[in-house]
Amino acid sequence: MLKPREAVRTLPLYHPPLGGREGLRLDFNENTAGCSPRVFNRLRQLDAEQLARYPERGPVEAHLAAFLAVEPQELLLTNGVDEAIHLLCEAYLEPGDEALIVVPTYSMYRIYAMGTGARVVSATLGEDFQFSVRDVISRISERTRFIAIANPNNPTGTSVSKNHLLQVAKAVPSAAILIDEAYFEFYGETVLDSRSEAPNLFVARTFSKAYGMAGLRIGALIGNTEQMRSVRRLASPYNVNAVALACLPHAIADQDYIRHYVEEVRESRQRLERSLAAGGIRFWPSQANFVLMRVGPTAEDAAQFVEGMRQRGILVRDRSSDQACEGCVRITVGRREQTDQLLAALQETLDQLGIAQGASRS
What is the Cα Rg of the chain in Å? Predict the structure, then answer.
């Protein structure tokens, strides 16, 4: 009888709650305004012949490499950051190896690492979800071959200094170190310009968040040329579809659009954080396009809050299942007028549930 590998049969399933997403979608950290008009215009220009051809990745990789000020040989376009994670795990992990993640964080690091048969070791973020470089390094062993760090982190929105990231990379030169910069545009700081200090360092970027192209599934992985040569062996030459490749140059060309949207998001983030602080609601200051807040001590509190917001036409994400996040909800922020709607619904829901000032600090 045909059976999958043991590592596959025991993988946890990741079920994003994508069904029935009617209303203002503030649950998946998507761009709430949509992609640049230049991207949409390019979509309209695509014809049947272009869609009938196999996609050619190389010229677009060179274009993006120039934009990021890296060499084309250092960059691989991927089917979102998810494929970048998957490729690194497949390239560097074997059964018996260890992968180190810092929790709570993005679920797919664990799933892709476990799929190789490697053992996943977790370091826990400290008080206020702060990154402890000492704790992370203390969990490195002779079997550590992969470390994933989201910066800023999801779901907490907290960040790690460049110096600490480089300390981790230099502490274990035999491991692939992935710095997932999916929310870079909202944060503004990167380790990309210091990649030469650690040949085992990889940086991932996405065009799903600030660029509003989540449906096109396109990201990038950047790393040492020699290491990227090995990673590229595992990637299909047709991993990124022709539509995404056609649109990407137009997306990065419209930096005015990105800057304007990022400014609105940062303003909205500050407004939400001020509102939560004024109401005595526990939250964690964020460097991303979302804020994590605690509405109560239990998962039931979070579920009731999510449902209350849904009734008011706004979707937010219950994060109670994440490490140390019981009773927590993550809220994406977007444009100014959407934030007006969010803050009104937020206050109504808190009042409805009787969440009084300071009640969520338990």
Answer: 21
